[in-house]
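Please go through the protein record below and see whether the fold suits the sequence. Record follows.
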Amino acid sequence: MFWHESQVLKGVRYATRRASLSGRLELLNKVRELVLRNEFLKNGEPAEQLEASMADAMVQRLYLEWGLAEINGLNIDGQPATTEMLIEKGPETLTDEIITSVQAELGLSEEERKNS
């Protein structure tokens, strides 16, 4: 695990998982499937574009579920935050920050980050 001090919420720390080759390949394969499908849908009708937006959110959820190992210093509804609570009710600025950290841990380039 690698600990990070949140830049968007003072007092919050979170740990991201260190990627093994196997784990990285498994996650990137799941993400790739969604991204390829999204590229097709983004150019379609409004309903397809909405579906692409939903798939984008699913990619973000995958990164959080896979990469966030622990979070400290954040309470949601009076309880210490968990990954699931963060996804359901947490501040989006923090989830964005964590996703960026996970992507960096995976060694994704800026272009790969834009596509996911």
Notes: The beta strands are 2-5, 13-16, 68-72, 75-76, 79-80.
